[in-house]
Structures
1.
Amino acid sequence: MAEHTSSNITIDAAPAAVMGVISDFARYPEWTDEVKEAEVLSQDSEGRAEQVRLLLDAGAIKDEHTLAYEWTGEHEVRWSLVKSQMLRSLDGVYRLTPADGGERTQVTYQLTVDVKIPMLGMIKRKAEKVIIDRALSGLKKRVESGGGATEDQGAAKG
């Protein structure tokens, strides 16, 4: 069984505002250094992304991959790898928990990465931890600065 890495952060905003930023894939390059391009390839009946193509440059991991997303209610989104040049698997989840009467949000980010090239488990988990910490920090900064989703949230840019 694959080991995963997880971390959490508290954001001074309601869960809806946090999920608004998480689900606005087209704007990921504005607040995540590792994501150079993001394109929504398909959406579900509620307009949420089902598949997203991402061009990623995270130092040791440079890749273009497609992820499939599964939305569970308004407080959780999971993703898994559809295709990649460098990765064997990539599974993750953002789980949002309202705090302080819904004024704040506890965000948990869990990630499991398996690369096609041999890599020591401890190095892989360190890379996962860096990706998670940067993503949570960027998410917090983006949400708290008021850089929320636009009306066409998650729409593909063409």
2.
Amino acid sequence: MEASSAIELAKHLLASFGIILAAGTISGFAAQKLRVPDVAAFLVIGILLGPQCAGLVDIAPDSAINQLILIFGSCYILFDGGATLRLNVLKEVWVTITTIATLGVLVTAGVTAVAAYYFLGIPFIVALLLGSVIASTDPATLVPVFKQIRIRERVAQTVLSESAFNDAMGAILTFTVLAVALGQGEFSIPHALHDLAQQSLLGIAAGGILGYLAALLIAHEKYDFLAEYAPVVTLMAVLGAYLGADGLHASGFMAVFVFGIVLGNKERFGFAMPQEEAAKLDEYILTTSLIMRMFIFILLGSQVDFALIQRYLVGGIGIVAVFMLVARPLTVFLCALPDRRAQWKTNELLFMCWTRETGVIPGALAGLLVGMKAPGAPMIASITFIAILATILLQATTTRWLAKKLGLLE
């Protein structure tokens, strides 16, 4: 009987995966023709396929398979994003990236918390917990958007790098505020900064070491005996970077991003792959990233709880409006404008003000709070989904139009 139920579950998952791939292919093709980012199309089609509409895709948010897809998919997309960055560009804007990924998260969380406190009348510590959850941006959303829309290089790479580096700060802030809300600790800026530095440095070290080893095994003129297995090496290294950093209590997402940067800039470390093998690897990464995007965003859409969203809809829209139109611009101008080395122009700053999609990472944090029965967790999950829907459907779909208006398309 147990074996039979396991087989039925396997068949159910296979059917769901087939539907996701078929629907993702069709909606991705439609998005390409309409010239909008495919993640927005995947999110909409996920809502339509979910249990509250057609009921064709029903995978529980707290199930092991859902968590597996979210973690691995986010890691691989983040690795892909890191591989597209260029070190010479990052050298020019590293001050902005560091500031906006640390101080910027605090500013965004604080402004959003004030809005939640006034719109919902909740305790300020719960409002701050909400602000902390949605303060970090989402690389799984931004990487595919910038893959499809060619934005001025230093702007795109600054926004991408911010989204990769600020997940550690967002997680640290969330769990620090949660400890205070549960009466298990008190907020300490030195302690938070120490945690951030530790997680970041260990994550960077883990990703850098694995990136160098991977480049050695697939692109060294003498030791590249795994060149033909380069796609498999990337899979192993992505998993190793994430799990290794996580085991060291560091940022696994930062580790896979740095791994991608090192492998994508392997020529600067003296490595070079044969053109044929490099083309095969690029095609494999492109296809795998596309499949991961389909699964992540279709599943995310299918798990939207309309009853919960409706309960907090009015207050949630007000909070998200402040979050998008006040907190983000304030964060960008406070953190980027003083960077004299980068010499940001007004059109570049305005673009960064609008481009900060919320997605998988805040969604995962909200899910963790629900599982831990944190104060106000259902409300936080509801408003997090409103933020995800608003930023992806409004900001991601208008990225090309805004970049064109601001003269940032390449």
